[in-house]
Amino acid sequence: MSKFMQGNSKRILVPGGAGYIGSHTCVELLNRGYTPVIVDNFVNSSMAAIDRICQITGANDVPVIEADIRDTEAMIGALREHECEAVIHFAGLKAVGESTANPLDYYSNNVQGSLSLLDAMRQTGVGHIVFSSSATVYGTPVSLPYTEDHPLAPTNPYGMTKYAVELMLNDLVASGAGINAGILRYFNPIGAHPTGLIGEDPNGVPNNLMPFVAQVAVGRRPHLNVFGNDYDTPDGTGVRDYIHVVDLAEAHIVALEKLLESPDSFTVNLGSGNGYSVLDVVKAFEQASGREIPLNFAERRAGDLPAYWADPSYAMELLGWKTRLTLEDMCRDQWAWQSGNPEGYPQREVGAA
Ligand code: NAD
Ligand code: UDP
């Protein structure tokens, strides 16, 4: 028996558990008495995140398997050895621009990887999976806010891979293979754990707004490029539904417990229902950090939608879950992470960005 298998705690396989959302979810799992079994190939994460998860939760250790989810035998071995009862699946690539340049990498990691993981679940009889999908599956809004029955028409390869995995999960559930699935469509996760010990640590120049703003605040970058200020939005800049990563992590526990309790599967939006513009975010971050964020108004970014946000009512109805943390909380905690770890996790080379 491995040292992680003592006691009654349910073990949950967490592919991608060393990454941004995965590490926050591992903290919430441990806080609630589950044992996360992390599988990661560390292509976009650091082993240091594991030490920090232990530091936050007081766990002595967490099982970590360094493997690629496309290695089906390794997934079977992990599920069997640790006697996992369910899977919370975060592993994959997530940069929209990169997915357009290298679509096959995205189909391989995200679709082939999920197929391999599901095959391992089928072969080992593990019957519950929570999957990280994205609001990007909706594509150009036909109506707003997005409800779960909005048409699905992703506009880039990354979104297509999420859509493909949703289809695969729905077909597998319908086949009677004994698997139920919770498909979670995230809106825009930002922020960090309030301890400032774990957070988003992007490789290279951040693509996303919040890590870019935080790096400007800490002096790593001279200014923020605001991509378009002529949209049909209240201040002309893009509007999104930002969600605190801790709220998001908590939603995974609720979704997991729903799957463990009932045979049903579900697909649900995870957002706040509020839209904030780029300038709203900048202002809130300046207040939280006490730092000025110099702005450069630039061209619209190709492929960006002007505005979208979630209808979060089904999450409340189905899971009894809604966001509780505000944009101010998100900025405060992002700043705690960024100011405490200006270059990201310790072993990342200084200046690697
Ligand atoms: P992340 O890059 O921080 O985490 C993903 C983790 O998966 C990383 O630790 C990476 O090393 C690992 N990984 C990647 N490919 C792998 C493979 N083939 N085998 C094993 N491990 C692999 O990203 P995140 O922001 O934490 O996102 C987690 C999930 O949520 C992803 O599936 C992402 O597409 C989805 N998602 C993220 C956002 C967002 O804005 N962050 C929004 C919607 C959906
Ligand atoms: N954005 C920006 N400058 C940046 C990064 C993003 O103005 O350096 C804007 C972007 O145009 C969008 C919003 O911030 O309106 C959120 O972008 P992000 O990439 O964080 O999320 P996504 O576009 O995937 O929703």
Task: Write up what this structure looks like.
The chain is α/β, with parallel strands linked by helices and 353 residues long. It has a single domain, classed as Rossmann fold. Helices cover 39% and strands 16% of the residues. It contains 11 helices and 13 strands. The protein has helices at residues 20-31, 48-57, 72-81, 96-101, 103-124, 157-174, 209-217, 245-261, 278-289, 313-319, 327-340; strands at 11-15, 35-40, 64-66, 86-89, 128-134, 180-186, 188-190, 224-227, 239-240, 242-244, 266-270, 276-277, 295-298. The strands form 4 sheets. A 7-stranded parallel sheet has the order 3-2-1-4-5-6-11, sandwiched between helices. It has a two-stranded parallel ribbon with strand order 7-10. It has a two-stranded parallel ribbon with strand order 8-13. It starts with 10 loop residues before the first strand and ends in a 13-residue tail after the last helix.
CATH class term: Alpha Beta
Order of strands in the sheet with most strands: 3-2-1-4-5-6-11
Q: Biggest sheet, open or closed, and with what strands and sense?
A: 7 strands, parallel
Bound molecules: nicotinamide-adenine-dinucleotide, uridine-5'-diphosphate
Could you give me the name of the CATH homologous superfamily? NAD(P)-binding Rossmann-like Domain
Number of strands: 13
CATH topology: Rossmann fold
Uncertain segments are 348-353
Strand content: 15-25%
Q: Sum up the overall morphology in one term.
A: globular
Q: CATH architecture, please?
A: 3-Layer(aba) Sandwich
How far apart are the termini? Answer: 42 Å
- Helix fraction? 25-40%
Average of pLDDT: 95
- Gyration radius (Cα, Å) is 19 Å
Helix tally? Answer: 11
